[in-house]
Every structure is written in C-alpha cells, then in structure tokens.
Design goal:
heterodimer; A: OB fold (Dihydrolipoamide Acetyltransferase, E2P); 3 domains; seven-stranded mixed β-sheet; four-stranded antiparallel β-sheet; B: Rossmann fold; 14 strands; about 20% strand
C-alpha cells in the first residue's frame, strides 16, 4: 500500500508551506518516523517524519517551492516498483467527506434487530433487560414467558422459573421438546388433546386413569411450554410421531378431536406402540363448520383476550343443556380461558394447516386398524357430527354415543366417558 | 482512640494534620484566619464563614493561614500558581455558588497544566467549598454545582457523607498531586459522630458500600447518603432489601462499584441533591443503561431536586431537597 506525504496544516492559521529540504533521494528505503522532509511555515522550520516505512518515491514539489496545505509532495510505497495512484490521492483530497466516512461500518447489521423475534402471541409484552439477557443466555424466547412484573413485565425471575419448568420437557426430536404432564403408575396411557386445547381437556379423566396407569399427557408443538418450531404446518403424522417419543413400549392411546386424528395416525404408522385406541369425537374429514371455525379461531386468538376467545368458543363446544347451567358455564369459561391462553394464534394456524392437509387422507385406511378401538361420539356435536361412522369403518370397534352432549364430551359427561374408557382399557 | 466530632471539626483536624506533616501545605481563603475580627492571640478568630478553620492560625501562624480579599478569581488564581510552583495549597471557596467568579483558573489552568506540559508541572491544589442546600442560605449560596467540576477532565471532585470520611478523604485530597475540588455539603456539616484520631487517608475514586442489599441499589453521595439509609430502613420494613452505595468521589467515578451493585440487584435509584439537568444522577443513569443494560429489571430512577433555583423559605427548601419518601416513591414505581 502506498502512503502520500502532503503539505501538513500545522496550525489554525497555516494556509501554505515551503519545501525547504528533501534529505532523501527517491528510491531509498525509509523507516517510519525518519525525517523525510523539512518545511517552513509561519517563520518556523519543521521536520516532517515518514508516516510509514517503505521506499521513498516521487518527489512532486521541488525545494524552495511554496504550496497550499494538502498539496501532494511525495509518496512512500511498500516496494520499489509499486505504482502510486496520484489521481486516487487527488480524488480523495477533493472529497474529504468521503475520506472521513470511509471505514464506517454498522456493526452486526445483519443480526436480527432486538425485539423482532416473534412468537405471534398478539401484543408484545414488556421484558426487563435483565430478563432478556438471561433468556438470551439460556436460548429462550422471552416473549413466551408469562410476566409477573408491573404491566405484565417479564422479570429475570420469570425467565428463570420458565427455564426450570422447561427442564421437565421431553425431547421428541433433535430440536423440539414437548411438555408432557405425567401422573400415576402402571401401563402407559397417552393423552392427545384436540385443536387449540391442551392436556387440561382431559382434566376429568386424568385422576381416574392415574389410579391404574402411568398417564402421559402430551401438549403438542406450540402448546403450553412445548417448543414452537417455525413451520408452515404442524402435521398430524408428526403429532403422532412426537407422541411415540414420550412414552415407553406400547400405550393405551386416547385422543380427542384433532388428537384422535393423531391417535389414528399413531395406530396406522406405529401399530406396535398402541395397545388400545380410544377416539373421542374423531373425524377423518373436516366438516364445513369446523373448517369455518378454524378460519375464525386464529384471527380471534390474535386480536382478542383469552376470556373473549373462550366465551366465543363455548357455544361450539358444549351442548344446549350444559350451556343452560349458568354456574357451570361460568366455571368452564374460566378454565377454557386459561387453556386457550396457552395456544398462540401461530400455533392454531399451523395446526389448522396440518389438519386441513390431512383431511380425507385416511378415509380408506380405517379398515387396516388392528388395535382394539373405542369410539366416543356426542349426539349434539356441532363440529364433528358424524364421528359414529368412524366406528363402523374400524374392524371390531366399540361405539359409545353420549346423548345430549356437545363436542367437549369428555368435559361435559365425564362419568359416561370414564366408564366406557375403564371398560375398554380392561 | 476516637471522639465525637462534627464534619466541620473533622475537616479542621484533617487540615491541621496535613499542615503538621507537610510544611508546604498552606491554607488560604476569605476570613479563614479571621480578618478584622481576629484577636491578637489568634484564638478568637472567625475561621471562615462557618468557623471550620478556627484555631488553625493560632498553631500555624499568619504565614501559612492566609486571609484573602473577597475576590475569588484572585484567590483561586493565586492558589493555582502557588500549587504549580511548589506549595500544596488548600483554598477555601466559601460557597460553591462562587465557582462562577473563580472558574477560569480551575477550568483552563489547574486542570490542564499537567496535561499540556507533558507531566512536567503538577498542581497539588485542594479547593474546599461548601455545597448544597439546607441552611436557608437562599438561591445564591445553596447550589450543588459539583456536576460542573465533575464535567471538567483534569479536576477531581470529592464529596464526603460523614465526619469520618470527610477527614480521610480530605487528607487524601490534600496529598494528591492533582487539583481536587472537595465539597462540604451543608447537610452534613453539623452531623457528629466518633472520628478516629491520628492520620488516615481514604482513597479517592473508590465508592463505599455502606449497606448491603439484594433488591434495589440506592446510589447516593454527600448529604443524600443519609436519605438513602433512611429509605433503605423503611424499605426493609416493607420486605425490600436495599443496597446503599456512597460514591465518595464523583470524579474519578467508581463505575465498577455501581455496576457490580446493579448486577446484584437489577434496580437502580440515584439520589442527587442537585438540579436534574446534566446532573451526576443522570450521568450515572446513562452508565447503568449503557454498560449495565443486561442487569436491569426496571427503569433507572433519578431522585433529584427540581429544575429551579433553591428556595429561601425553609418549607420550600425542604420540599426542594430530595427526601426518603421520594426514594420510596421511585422504588414503588419500579415494581
């Protein structure tokens, strides 16, 4: 690289200087700091030191000449034959602002901007810088953490508690862990909740099952503390594969609604992992009404608070007689609001995409199911009106039709449902 | 051995020790010896407007304890010159409010000479000055202007919070080879406590953790340390553990102590009795946000006086000064 020697500006009032003496011949080696030039300005002679080591070249201004400050006087190059670009030097001199700006780089501008990692849970919640730092260290998204500070601010302690809760997660593949709630001892029972809900949908079954079995309640991808890997779709077959990673050996598989679709996939793809199959309000194709609700649900989840969403869902999930009981309705609404709060709109979008692409893909495969199967159907089910037909298509399947119950039959009529499951599991 | 001394008494003792141990130490200022009121035997002299230096002229004589005219530019200019030419002067600037009339020797001479002469000149000058409000001395005699001297590179600015620190910090300041502005806050001048006898120094530039805590850091200095301690006690009653950091030195600033405390607690309140704009409080807040951002659990809070002149009315002056209640309110807003 070549270095220019130009007439320096040594004081605020110095406009020009005179070259008094060039002590070196061009072509000679020069050390940085060595005197290469003597100039005179404002009645004083000043020795100018070499700004770089190299070969002293190109004297442009002769001794005795007076030139303005900034005039190119000579050059130092690294080697004797390296060219020195006079035009480039002058170009840089004429546009000093460019020279000044050169080398300015915005560091890390390819990194994601702070606060742009989105989890799609609607409004952005405030996160304390300390919480953000801990989350970064632990590799967590702080937006996923429930905040206990003022205005719901996520504190450092919130992130630490979240991380601790997540330690209990079960890895189902290299980068995805699921929240699996376990209780009881005995043969494994795996519970697969439906669209937009979590394991709490089986709240009325778990205590009974836990008396005789080891219950594994699996929250699917994007639900509760389970990971939400970025994806267009959470496929039904993937849900089934995930479930098989959460229990040992062969299990009694119980699915509700979309969870029963996953249970069907599990029984078809991994028959050796299913001891029995219990399908609560199952379907193989998505009804127009369920499709329409699936259109509205994620939009509502993105814009409304959980209580509003739950209140809107209530009439779709429950029967006329259940809704007629105000006290039961209020109680259930509170529980449902907590449940839907654990399923962000992005998860709903992905699950619905998976559900719609799965729809109608297994209609002819039901006859291949070799596992003892119980189908529980509800007579007032608005979303899955024909689940009884599934029982006819599965060889040897038992059917229970709960009269006067809605889609959420496991919550609405736990006694009948539990009785049938108990009998089925043996 | 120790005995009860006021902050003023501790300062008097520090000056006497410095003058006994180093013959180049001199004291100069308006009425530091006593001016026209001094009796012949030197025991009835005034000792400065607040009597802080009373008795020194008796021991050290008129040659080393020198009254100056009421002309701060001349007083401080002379002191800077004396310091640059071999003495170790202590100049008393009666009130920090008079900084304006004495600023050039500090701003452009004392703080720059060592730098501009390549280390060949030193200016071992200490300017003692009474700062702050609380004595109903009105708007022109009550300001806390340490933010001005803190903002000048080359000056050190020290502010003790109690008699023990005042003595140790002043001895260190006098013996420091650079110019030091030593603030004597009105709020602590009459505060008394046991002060060790003898010669001891407290290093300049090191903060002091006066109370350990885990939930919130209260950074204070000078007269606000007492406010912070009072607030910490009240917070303890409410189940919040407050750490109190006494800066002792505004320049150099012990950033490490501040950030270490913030890392521990995640919450920061700075209590400063000066007005808020360009204040020490906001300067430290900027340090916390810049270098301690990842420690923050809540917004940094500054408890300062309002952006007004200091009122003369006692009621208004008390309302003007930061209080423990202000600190509690700030902590309450943090969550």
């Amino acid at each position: 690289m070549a270095t220019a020697i130009s007439m320096p500006k040594l004081g605020m009032t110095m406009e020009e200087g005179t070259v008094i003496h060039w002590p070196l011949e061009p072509g000679k080696a020069v050390e940085k700091g060595q005197v290469v030039l003597v100039i005179e300005s404002e009645k004083a002679e000043v020795e100018i030191e070499a700004p770089a080591s190299g070969i002293f070249r190109h004297i442009y201004i002769e001794e005795g000449d007076t030139v303005p400050c900034g005039t190119l006087l000579a050059a130092i190059t690294e080697t004797a034959d390296e060219p020195f670009d006079v035009d480039a030097f002058h170009a840089a001199e004429e546009r000093p602002e460019v020279k000044g700006d050169r080398g300015l780089r915005v560091k890390g501008d390819s990194d994601p901007k702070p606060g742009t990692t989105s989890s799609g849970t609607g409004a952005r919640k405030p996160i304390a810088p300390a919480a953000r730092a801990v989350a970064r260290k632990l590799g967590l998204d702080p937006q996923q953490v429930a905040g206990t500070g003022p205005n719901g601010r996520v504190t450092k302690q919130d992130v630490e508690a979240y991380a601790k809760a997540r330690e209990a997660l079960i890895p189902v593949d290299r980068s995805v862990s699921l929240e699996v709630l376990t209780s009881g001892t005995g043969d494994p029972v795996v519970l697969l909740p439906g669209l937009g809900t979590d394991v709490s949908a089986f709240a009325r079954q778990i205590p009974l099952l836990a008396e005789r079995f080891r219950v594994h309640g699996v929250n699917p991808r994007g639900v509760g503390l389970s990971d939400s890997p970025s994806s267009e779709s959470y496929d039904v077959a993937q849900m089934a594969a995930d479930a098989t990673a959460t229990y040992p050996g062969s299990a009694h598989v119980i699915g509700a609604s979309l969870g029963s679709a996953a249970a069907l996939e599990l029984a078809l793809n991994h028959p050796e992992r299913a001891k029995t199959l219990t399908l609560i309000t199952p379907f193989v194709d998505v009804s127009p009404r369920l499709r329409a609700l699936g259109d509205a649900w994620p939009r509502l989840a993105a814009q409304a608070d959980p209580e509003t969403l739950a209140a809107t869902l209530m009439p779709w999930f429950f029967s006329t007689s259940f809704l007629a009981d105000d006290a039961a309705r209020a109680r259930t609404l509170r529980g449902l609001a907590q449940t839907v709060a654990r399923v962000p709109a992005t998860t709903l979008d992905r699950m619905i995409t998976g559900m719609l692409s799965w729809s109608n893909s297994r209609s002819t495969d039901l006859s291949r199911i070799s596992v003892p199967t119980l189908v529980i159907s509800a007579s007032e089910d608005l979303l899955v009106p024909d689940s009884g037909l599934i029982a006819q298509a599965i060889p040897g399947a038992t059917l229970l039709v709960v009269e006067g119950a809605g889609h959420a039959v496991a919550l609405e009529s736990p006694d009948l449902v539990n009785q049938a499951i108990t009998a089925h599991l043996g | 051995m120790s005995r009860i001394l006021s902050t003023g008494g501790a300062i008097n003792e520090a000056i006497a020790i410095a003058m006994r141990t180093d013959p180049t130490v001199i004291l100069m200022g308006e009425d530091v010896a006593g001016g026209g009121d001094r009796s012949k035997d030197g025991t009835e002299e005034m000792g400065g407007v607040l009597g802080t230096t009373r008795g020194l002229v008796g021991e050290f004589g008129m040659n080393r304890v020198r009254d100056t005219p009421i002309a701060e530019m001349g007083l401080i200019g002379t002191a800077v010159g004396a310091a640059a030419t071999g003495l170790r002067p202590i100049a008393e600037l009666m009130f920090m409010d008079f900084l304006g009339t004495s600023l050039d020797p500090l701003l452009n001479q004392a703080s720059k000479l060592r730098y501009m002469f390549g280390g060949k000149v030193k200016v071992p000058l200490t300017v003692r000055t009474v700062s702050g409000a609380g004595m109903q001395a009105a708007a022109q005699h009550s300001q806390s202007l340490y933010w001005i001297t803190t903002g000048i590179p080359g000056l050190k600015t020290i502010i003790p919070s109690n008699p023990v620190d005042a003595k140790g910090l002043l001895l260190a300041a006098i013996r420091d080879d650079d110019p030091v502005i030593f603030c004597e806050p009105k709020g602590i001048l009459n505060q008394s406590t046991e002060v060790p006898e003898g010669d001891y120094e407290i290093p300049l530039g090191k903060a002091n953790i006066v109370r350990e805590g885990s939930d919130v850091s209260l950074v204070a200095f000078g007269a606000t340390v007492r406010i912070a301690m009072k607030a910490a006690k009240a917070l303890e009653g409410a189940g919040t553990s407050a750490e109190v950091v006494d800066l002792r030195s505004l320049s150099p600033l012990d950033e490490e102590a501040i950030l270490t405390s913030l890392e521990k607690t995640g919450r920061m309140v700075i209590i400063d009795e000066s007005t808020p704009r360009c204040s020490i409080a906001r300067d430290i807040a900027a340090v916390c946000v810049d270098k301690g951002f990842d420690f923050l659990q809540a917004p940094v809070k500054c408890v300062t006086a309002p952006h007004t002149p200091v009122p003369f009315s006692e009621v208004l002056e008390q309302a003007f000064l930061p209080s423990a209640q202000d600190v509690l309110d700030s902590v309450g807003q943090m969550g």
